[in-house]
Amino acid sequence: MIRGAATIATLAALAACADPPRDACDGTAALALTAADRALAGMAAPYPADGALRGRDAELAHDQRARRTAAWAAVERAVAPAPFALAPNLPTAALPRWHTWYGKDDLRRMFDRGFRGLSADEQRARARLSDAALDAVFAWNPTAVGELPTWPPERLAEYAAAVDTPEEAHGIGGIDRVQYSPGAARHLLASYPEIIACLGRPTPAPIVDPPTPGPRRLVREAVTLAPCADATYGPYYVGDDETLTARVDGPGRVRVDVGAPPTADRFACEDTTCTIRGAGPVWVTAVADADGGAATITIDYQEADPAWAACLAGAFPLDAALVKADWRRAELGFQVPVFDTSGPALTAMRADDTRAWISTTDADPGADRIYTALLPNGNRYRLAGLHLMTKELDHWLWITLWWSPEPDRDFGADRPAALADTVWRNYKMCAVTAFAEHDPDPRGHATDASLGDALAAVHDAPAWCSNPMLEQGAHNGTSSCIGCHQHGGTTLRAEDILTFPADGRTQLRNNFPTDYSFAVLTGDEVGRMLADEVEFWTPR
Amino acid sequence: MVLRRVLLGVIAVSLAACGGGGGANPVDAPDTPIDAAVPVDAPVDAFIIPVLRNPVATPDAELATQAAALLGQGGPMRCNQCHAITRDRLRSWETESSSAVTSCLTNTMPMTQAEGAAIVDCLRAAPGVATSGWPPDHLGIYATAARLDWFRYVFNLAFGTTEGPTQLAMFQAEAAMPRGAATEYTQAEFDIVAEWFARGLPMIDVVIPADPPPTQCTTNITSEVATHVATMATQGWRAVNRGNGILMFGCAGAATARDCLGTYPAASDNAFSNTWEGALPGQRIRVLRTNNYASSYWTRSSADGRYVSHGGASVASQTYRSTVIDLSRDAEIPAAALYDPGFFADNSGFVLQGGSAKFCEQSLLATNPAMIAFNEPQCRTTTAVGLYQHLGAVHNGDYWTVDGQFTNDNGGHNATLSDPSATFSQTATIDLTPMVHTGNQFVPKPGVRKSVTREGDVIISPSARLLVSRVSAGGGQSLFLMRKIVATPNGTSYDIQIPEIARYCVRGAKPAISFDERWMVWHHYVEANDWMALGYASATDPGFVALRTSGAANLFVMDIATGVIRRVTTMAPGQYALYPHFRSDGWIYFIVRDSANNREYIAASDAALMLETQ
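Output (structure tokens, whole complex):
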């Protein structure tokens, strides 16, 4: 298995953002499934997406309890056990569904076979891999080991027979940094022409408004404003030569501006009804009068219509999901850091200038308390954290898990009973679905006091979700997955993104070149892998 | 035996550099610093030129003991971290020091820009060439003074206080000794050591023990070697990389590995190379590139064979002194380093040295950079890895580096008529540094130091399971000694055992192990006794005389399990085939320094691939 290009570094990871363009010491896939491992694990288990979730996008954005419930349900789907294809001495051998997903080595193996299956003319023309061709390479992948002379059947049988503990079974899944569900992997391979074409080209501008108009949108929202208080909405991406009209019905007025949220001193219009012309991002602020009270905000606009993902063959499909795993060595003195994610701790972190996660202590949990993988060479790793992004929403459902020695407090307090008898009972979770936090209840309707305290501590206009294990470094404690990942497919570094408004949480783009994925141009550098394969095999 | 140089009388009145000082009994030498004189008519509080060296009046015996300890003999590890403190080595340093003194350090009280510049320029590898650097062997023991005030003064004098520090930093990066973790010399310490050298190393035979080499060498290959080779056939990096679909350079459309690189000219196609293949009929040697610049020290390549790197560059630069060549684009990428490249067996990264070890992800090279400054996001520097480093990677495990005593081998630029010395000290050690994979990064743990008596030039195999060193044997023999690495996790690091598993009685230098760890290659300079092995009737055969006049070096390949050795090349006079090493699929890359044509070539041989089918 190809070693990850984790830099041979002495410096601790300067990772920032949920899935940064480049962790300081991260890189490409690390210790992924080899051909032999894939033979044992079998085909990757598809992610059974909830197709109805997309219709609840607005609800999830406005209700944290609903959001967290939906997120936990997605976690259940992602960690559900998928049985091994080959494990004669451990009949119960299974991997969590996500751990069967494809690593970069799988992608390379399958693309190599698929691309070499094209004719010379097709290769030169960068012809797309057909559905049938993709079906074939995905089905072939678990059998690829049979074509390796160094893996005769006897050796494979011996390798399979050596797996006789759950930790060894987990080790077969490898300790890849990023893994792709079948839907995500397939879409990447299918998009290779667009991905390669994007390499070396300038990144699409953050705001793009092509000639074709987007749909007409109408937003109506009931609000209750305290006297003289305000609430800001947006940005709304207004098309060229189109207008946005904002109106307040109730005790107050609206301010609108394009390019930045309006302020008391700077606005394009302030009245009970305002109309502003595009093109660009428009913000609307509702300002209560001296009495305050209930009001209704109505926003009517013509949306810009950019290409969603210019570097892919369209957006990822519904069943696309990706994980990013934070594995920690479980020997040689390495332990798992512990972070306080209680309300008071989060309040203190937000108040600090650095706004960085600082661990309080370390722990040494056994395999009964933390998901553990024992690799074939005897090295042992623990899963300290796990990002999960699913395409059940247009802007993805963003979920992240982190291990805690007190897992039933704050962000673990509402864990569903279905996970109670699994190792996942030791993980806490936060989730985000939109750039802005629209839930008016700072406590997120939480029934548990510790969870309510924690949610209140991070309640802000831009939504928050940060994993203490993965989001290290200054300003990363107050970041959000969606805020960072909107820049996927650009050349921005994590350090750049965290300097943007609200530590990168504010929406700044209306198009997403790689549909929020950092893996294509940075991170795993899937694009470079595809380009190398194409360049190598295309006849001159 | 005390050697005295009759120059001490000069010191008392002249501004001669201290290295060449000698003459009268040093006990009688004045006690005042010889270079601390204040310029005539200067005010009382005028600037005082720093001293290069303060003469020391200590008697010979005591001086020798103190100096030897400061070098590392009988004292804390200093120079002996990298160099064997042997009598031969010290005498060679004495020669270098004397040359530096008489050639460049005659004026130790420069006062004008021109005088400072003259000193700086004289110490260069190529005086008159502003980008040629300052190799340590042009200073001898004065390299240990490079960080002291005198050199700082001279560089500021030569370049001005704005540019002076920059030039000084470059000078120190290349020349200053000791390197790595060894403690730098204070002025007082340097004075003692320099005095000893200036006096001609009196009582060296008392304070520096003789290193009795073995009187004979017997090739011995234990069964462990065969076991290792069998294991690596399926678990070694050749198999692993193949299973991972690594794209081998030049192999698109090739039916077998031997068919790779077919678009490149064969050695037999050109007049300058048509003798090369003669030693091993049936092999193919391909000439991959002609370089119109001189490389320095060793050359190494990426596992996929696409990238080749070494010290030296085609464009003179004080910063970009190394090159990474992308064979795919036939492009040279200047790198801000000095020399000593290494590539990871899994094709993931590379390292170059230059003040510190500079590591980068290999993906950086695929972005077609114009140059490598090592401040790119894909790069990091560390002082945890010493000079003359070699890299290995345990499959699915940690990376390992090894460094220890070494002899510089940069032959072929001039007539080089023997292999570099394989004499290393009785107290020689190596540092095995684990780069532990923590899950999302590699973190170096403290090096584990192991004693390897009289061994040096140690390399590590791609799997990090074997070590090979050079050892001097009696009667002009030298040998390669092979050890296996047994690393057992213990607490926060590893316990390491390195039992010997083979010794091969053959002369040679710069060995390298194949990715399937079946073969070992090395180069060997044509030496006086080689006439028969090269097929000449006698040492006076005109053909052999031509080789011995211009010098030459050939490559050898050995099956480590059987000890069977085959010569790979037949180089013409003035041609040096050097630094052979493997890429993942078994091709042997090497460089040829061709003094007759003033060029260098990157070449590849499928000798091992051919032999494995026999």
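Residues 1-29 of chain A have pLDDT under 50 and may be disordered.
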